[in-house]
UniProtKB/TrEMBL annotation, chain A:
<dbReference type="GO" id="GO:0015408">
    <property type="term" value="F:ABC-type ferric iron transporter activity"/>
</dbReference>
<keyword id="KW-0997">Cell inner membrane</keyword>
<keyword id="KW-1003">Cell membrane</keyword>
<dbReference type="Pfam" id="PF00005">
    <property type="entry name" value="ABC_tran"/>
</dbReference>
<dbReference type="GO" id="GO:0016020">
    <property type="term" value="C:membrane"/>
</dbReference>
<keyword id="KW-0813">Transport</keyword>
<protein>
    <submittedName>
        <fullName>Iron(III) transport system ATP-binding protein</fullName>
    </submittedName>
</protein>
<dbReference type="InterPro" id="IPR050093">
    <property type="entry name" value="ABC_SmlMolc_Importer"/>
</dbReference>
<keyword id="KW-0547">Nucleotide-binding</keyword>
Automatic annotation (TrEMBL), chain B:
<dbReference type="InterPro" id="IPR000515">
    <property type="entry name" value="MetI-like"/>
</dbReference>
<dbReference type="GO" id="GO:0005886">
    <property type="term" value="C:plasma membrane"/>
</dbReference>
<dbReference type="InterPro" id="IPR035906">
    <property type="entry name" value="MetI-like_sf"/>
</dbReference>
<protein>
    <submittedName>
        <fullName>Putative spermidine/putrescine transport system permease protein</fullName>
    </submittedName>
</protein>
<keyword id="KW-0813">Transport</keyword>
<keyword id="KW-0997">Cell inner membrane</keyword>
<feature type="domain" description="ABC transmembrane type-1">
    <location>
        <begin position="59"/>
        <end position="247"/>
    </location>
</feature>
<feature type="transmembrane region" description="Helical">
    <location>
        <begin position="186"/>
        <end position="208"/>
    </location>
</feature>
<keyword id="KW-1003">Cell membrane</keyword>
Length: 328, 265
């Protein structure tokens, strides 16, 4: 259980600013889901936190101690990669016990301890198998056990379940979250998928072009995003240019000649029934948007709709960090 | 099926028959023309080959030079291969080409030049000079083999071990060496065999002072009789085999528990 403070972290690779003054704090035991597309610097941020990359400026403090001069091997931080990266020449038991071996724990003790953690992930029956004899999901479970046995002050997960199929993925997420909560581990969970971030994170942050936009509860970010990237990634509503219309405030009806210019004209591109609602893909002001509407609403593709909302429920989105000072 | 038989016969003719004849020759008391097979056998030729002062001097020198070459090869090539496999830096292509040059340029040309250079720094005609010059035809191969080995295992596993708390040394022993073993084995054997067969380099840089088996072998061929020569040839070809066994034994001892898992899988 340790708190993490990241202050003004920047990293440059071949002249490109991969990370630009990233600052955030995590409470002990907090699971922070970090969202963003590929190439936004999420993985680099994790590598800096793990000590595999050295940041150019900024500080990382974990449990009150600065980590900036500490090597990866000495940091109480474990990084779990997208691939399970089990050591191919060791049995599952030896893999899980490895973190204890590096700390000089006696063979018998670490073997027993590995059994406990293999049991936790439901893989004890396969303890003497080699990684090549396991499926992708099994490997990830063992990798998680191997990470948890080290009792890291901070656990970093870099899209660990991205390569699994959807059903398995959510099983793994739920189950990984319960293990993390049981151990009280502070964790950063990187993903590009909104549903994963919402399922996993106590808090969510959105990264875009090397910067971290907003960090907050999933509900708050969905209802009232303050930045463009956050609105795109998490916002529950319609984004029209730099204006965000929360879903709760959206009013939709068929376009008529009586409609004035206060709202927006939108053309229906496609329709899809989901969770008893109608998912409508729209084209508003030249940009594609998705919106869910209660199912009974009848409409057809190609039809024109009129979207409006009370002006005081609208959110003006900022594209740059710092334009909204209240988030600092 | 027929091809398999043809291949077997071909291998038999090309490899085992000459070797067999060599063995027979080395034990034959007399094996003149028109004799189908020697009539009596003796250990005498082996005794004279093994008791020849030149050979007696050359054997330990050869073994030490070979082991020294292999050892130095790894000390130099391991870090170099790792850097070439995992890092991009300015002039990398140039370095890689430079590493091939000793293989492309005739060894003798380099040896003559090196001999005069070694003369001025006092390394000529010494075993240390010969050991150093043996690195020329071996290190490029070792770096190449190890580099491909590093590329095969990748750097992610090592990073994973690091975040699990493994020090540099633990990473080397627990992760890199066991996974690199096939490459290390191949490189050790190749470097050893190349070092064993350097006649020109040994004679030029050793200047007749450093008596490795390869240097003794040729003058021997001119004077000794065919049976002694056969015994010497067999001895010479047993060395790489011995080398292989010793290295294999060393790897097993050093990485016993780590190799076990590989073999089980």
């Amino acid at each position: 259980m340790s708190e993490l403070h990241v202050n003004e972290l920047s990293h440059r690779y071949r002249g490109v600013e991969v990370l630009q003054s990233i600052s955030f704090s995590l409470a002990p035991g907090e699971i922070f889901a970090l969202m963003g597309g590929s190439g936004t610097g999420k993985s680099t941020l994790l590598k800096c936190l793990a000590g595999l990359e050295k940041q150019h400026t900024g500080t990382i403090t974990l449990g009150g101690q600065t980590m900036d001069e500490t090597t990866a091997a000495k940091r109480p931080v474990v990084l779990m990669f997208q691939d399970a990266l089990l050591f191919p020449h060791m049995t599952l038991r030896e893999n899980v016990a490895y973190a204890l071996k590096t700390r000089g724990v006696k063979r018998q003790v670490r073997s027993d301890q590995a059994a406990v953690f293999l049991e936790k992930v439901g893989m004890l029956h396969a303890a003497e198998r080699l990684p090549e004899q396991c499926s992708g999901g099994e490997k990830q479970r063992v990798a998680l056990a191997r990470a948890l046995i080290a009792q890291p002050a901070l656990l970093l997960l870099d899209e660990p379940f991205a390569s699994l199929d959807e059903t398995l993925r959510f099983q793994m997420l739920r189950w990984a979250k319960s293990l993390l909560k049981e151990a009280g581990t502070t964790a950063v969970f990187v993903t590009h998928a909104k549903d994963e971030a919402v399922a996993m994170g106590d808090t969510i942050g959105v990264m875009h072009e090397g910067r971290l936009f907003e960090k907050g509860s999933p509900a708050a970010l969905a209802r009232r995003p303050l930045y463009g990237p956050t609105a795109d990634a998490l916002g529950d509503g319609v984004r029209i240019g730099s204006t965000f219309v929360p879903a709760s405030a959206v009013k939709v009806h068929r376009f008529t000649s009586n409609d004035d210019d206060a709202g927006w004209k939108a053309q229906v591109q496609s329709l899809f029934q989901t969770h008893g609602q109608l998912l409508v893909c729209l084209e508003v002001a030249g940009a594609a948007q998705a919106l869910t509407i209660p199912a009974p609403f009848q409409m057809a593709e190609g039809e024109w709709l009129y979207i409006s909302a009370d002006s005081d429920s609208l959110v003006e989105l900022a594209e740059q960090r710092g334009e909204h000072d209240e988030t600092k | 099926m027929i091809y398999r038989w043809l291949l077997a016969i071909f291998l038999l003719l090309m490899f085992f028959v000459p070797l067999f004849l060599l063995v027979v020759q080395s034990f034959a008391r007399e094996w003149r023309f028109q004799m189908i097979f020697p009539e009596t056998f003796t250990l005498q030729h082996w005794q004279s080959a093994l008791s020849d002062p030149l050979v007696v001097e050359a054997l330990p020198v050869t073994v030490l030079l070979t082991f020294g070459t292999v050892l130095l090869n790894f000390i130099i090539a391991f870090p170099a291969a790792r850097v070439l496999a995992f890092y991009d830096f300015y002039g990398k292509a140039v370095v890689e080409t430079m590493l091939l040059v000793p293989v492309l340029v005739p060894a003798l040309a380099i040896a003559v030049g090196l001999h005069s250079a070694f003369l001025s720094i006092g390394l000529a005609n010494s075993w240390l000079g010969v050991l150093l010059v043996y690195l020329l035809p071996t290190v490029p191969f070792t770096i190449r083999i190890l580099k491909n080995g590093f590329i095969r295992i990748g750097s992610d596993l090592e990073a994973q071990a690091a975040v699990l708390g493994a020090s540099r040394w633990q990473r080397f022993l627990d992760i890199i060496m066991p996974l690199m073993l096939p490459s290390v084995r191949a490189a050790a054997f190749l470097a050893g065999v190349i070092a064993l067969s350097q006649y020109a380099l040994t004679v030029t840089v050793g200047g007749g002072q450093v008596m490795a088996l390869s240097a003794v072998y040729f003058p021997f061929a001119e004077s000794a009789n065919a049976s002694i020569m056969a015994a010497l040839s067999l001895l010479f070809s047993l060395l790489p085999l011995g080398l292989l066994l010793v290295f294999e034994g060393m790897f097993r001892l050093l990485f016993l528990n780590r190799v076990k898992a590989i073999r089980k899988g």
